[in-house]
């Protein structure tokens, strides 16, 4: 088990050398280390992630895209964070229930526990066998919620995400952008009760939203910002158009819901 230690050592200099005095600046883009590049070559599948604040409609879109790919005969798996593995589902229950109370650090570590398990059990094996994977929330959620939202230092979160992912990179991330006021109206309509995180109120979600938008500004080649107030079908169409650039799909099927 030498590798994890090596990765920790690799991560540490980055940890100490980047970020302003509040530790809130993202580290500059890293070159992929040679051993990670070799690993990347073995991961022939494609990973697409869906992000956005609660109520933005990303889970609905992730399902539409899964259905679209299945209709096109393209093997695909949809999973979510937190969740996605038996351990992850147990962690999800703890994270979203009102009790027990969680310190901000415990919350962070639980999200990372969930991710680490999900990556090793589902994502890495899936990508190695050439699968297309859709993931409802991933690395950017931790930066946006625990970083911009709760105030954990961004360079630390970046390092921890990198330790979990190693060479894995989402091909494209679809960020459904929505004003928190509209998001809250949608959540209230959808269900009477709010989970632990949804209860944090509008200013928390403004920070999360701005965090997501800053991530998108930093990585425009990966993160595509979509206006979540557009009609559902239009958003699906925009995402399928993008996904077609990466996957070898027959040009016959319609992107829209329900069409075969
Ligand atoms: P969920 O009900 O799955 O929300 P949604 O359907 O909107 O995705 O709840 C997941 C919550 O966990 C959501 O509020 C976002 C939050 N979260 C984090 O705070 N950090 C993370 O790293 C992840 C993956 C999720």
Question: How would you describe this structure in keywords?
Answer:
260 residues; Rossmann fold; disordered N terminus; 53% helix; binds thymidine-5'-diphosphate; single chain; five-stranded parallel β-sheet; alpha/beta
Structural account:
Helix content is about 55%, strand content about 10%. With about 260 residues, it is of the alpha/beta class. The chain has a single domain (about 1-245), classed as P-loop containing nucleotide triphosphate hydrolases (Rossmann fold, 3-Layer(aba) Sandwich), CATH 3.40.50. The chain has a five-stranded parallel sheet, sandwiched between helices. Helix 4 (about 85-95) packs antiparallel against helix 5 (about 105-130). It is globular, with a radius of gyration of 18 Å. Thymidine-5'-diphosphate binds near residues 54, 141, 142, 146 and 195. Thymidine-5'-diphosphate (TYD) binds near residues 54, 59, 81, 137 and 141.
Give the overall shape, derived from the CA principal axes: globular
Strand content: 5-15%
Number of helices: 10
Q: Taking all residues together, what is the mean pLDDT?
A: 87
Named CATH topology: Rossmann fold
The strands making up the biggest β-sheet line up spatially as: 2-3-1-4-5
How many DSSP-defined strands? 5
CATH homology superfamily: P-loop containing nucleotide triphosphate hydrolases
CATH architecture: 3-Layer(aba) Sandwich
